[in-house]
Structures are given as C-alpha cells and as structure tokens.
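[Meeting: bench + compute handoff]

Bench side (C.D.) handed over the final construct sequence. Compute side (W.E.) agreed to return the predicted structure before the next meeting so the bench team could plan truncations. Sequence as handed over:
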Amino acid sequence: MGLLEHKPKSRLIFVRHLETPIIQQRYILKKDPKYVRFLHLINTATPQTLPNFVPEIKALGEDILGRYEMMPKDNVLPIAGGQEAWGMAIGNAIEDRYRIDEIEESTHLRARQTRELLQRGSSQLAELTVAQNPDLIERTFGDADIFPFGRLYLSTNMEELGKFVADRDNYTYPNSEIKPVFNARMQRQANRFETKADYAGKTTLVVGHSTVTKHQVAILTRPTLIERALGRKNPYSDLSVDTGSITVLEEKRKLNPLSRRRRYRVIAANERLVPMPTL
C-alpha cells in the first residue's frame, strides 16, 4: 500500500437485542405503584431499620410476584406487535448506511434471534457468516435471573435481603458472576477489539446486550494518560443503550504510529435507525 493510499478504518457497530417478554414486563413494573414502594423500601432500609420493613417488603413482593409471570431472561422473542418487521427494518437500515464485513454475536438466544431478524431484512447481512462469542454475554445474576428485576428475588429470601442492605455496593446474588470476573471478561474482549488483526480495517456488527455495549464503549474510548492528566473525562463512561439501538465506534488516528493498539471514537451513540413499534 502506498503512503498516500487510504487505509480502511476499523468500525464496531453494537446492536442491542430486541424485546423479550421479560423486558416488556419491566416497562409495566416501573409504573406499578406497589413496585415503586417496594424499591423505595429496599433501597432506603438500613440494617437497623430493616426489621421494621420486612413484613411490608414481603407482602409487596408476594403481591407483585403473584401478578407478573416470572420467566428466564433468555425467553424466546415474541413475534407479535410488529417486532419481526422492526428487526428486519433495522437490518435493512444498517445495510443502507454501512458495509458490514463480519458479524459477532452473544451466545444468548435473544441475541441470535435478533441477528436472524436483521439478516432477514438485509441481503448483505444474510450472506455473512456469524461468529458466536461467549465473552459478549451479559453479566449473569444467578438465582435472581428469573425475576423481571433482580431485587424482587430479595423479597423471597430474607437472609439475602439482609446481606444486600448491609453492603449494597458489593452485594452479589447467589450463583451469579461476580463483578471482578465480569470486568475482567469485558477487558479481555476490549483487548481483542484493540489489538486482534481480525478486526483491522473491517466493520464488525456486534449483536448483544446493553451492559456489554456500555462496558466496551467505556473501555475503548477511555482517555489516555495524557488526556486524564489534562482533566479530560470520558462522556461515554455510562452510556444508555436502548432496545434495538446501534452504537458505532470508529478507529481514530494513533498517537503512536508504531502501536499495535487501535484507538476508537464514538460516531453514533444509542441511535435508533428505525422507530420502535408499539409492542
């Protein structure tokens, strides 16, 4: 390649999976006054005041759990409500805007189902092979994964509720992936995006989850040591990632041309290419 020839930039396009029944329940739960009260008690109780709140917390939890169907987070995507057409339209919109070279996806069912809908809406995407990457799965919350919001689990287990109230910042649900392990997994994947030759000069579509996208964007766009010394903060350190949205990172010029590590900048954050239908 000559010195004046254009070298293609690496791009990462993160797509959050579409709706699942459990996510739809969350929209309803957030407006439920009993659930709002339940969260208030859970989040404000102290080890000293908790005994006074336990009867109400248990009663509210039982009422909520009795009115909402509990189901695993990886339940099958519902086709009703325009979701199938929405996923296909997103795939078509991605094809109109970007030339995708490869697809990676989380090994969770909802990511695969979303990718299949994207491919059905795009002849370009349909031709690509798909690599499944277990490091792209979201953090698992063990025994609490079956609940629409994990904290409902605490109303069924008073011992765990006490542990949560005693140390909210470090509490981990039983059998869940602890934060240091999840963070190490996110760093390992970010290192691949930055250094692995397979991503060089390519546009990779990454189909997965909000927590993974947030962590990858925060790591991949982090300020350098010099930038931190100058007081620069990362505006994408806690990005919101909506269902069906895309977030696009593009390789930027290296400060050190000899470095193997790619640096990225955000060119689209939490963007919906197609309006979300009423589900």
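W.E. noted at the follow-up: Strands lie at 11-16, 102-105, 130-132, 203-208, 246-252, 263-271. C.D. will use this when planning the next construct.
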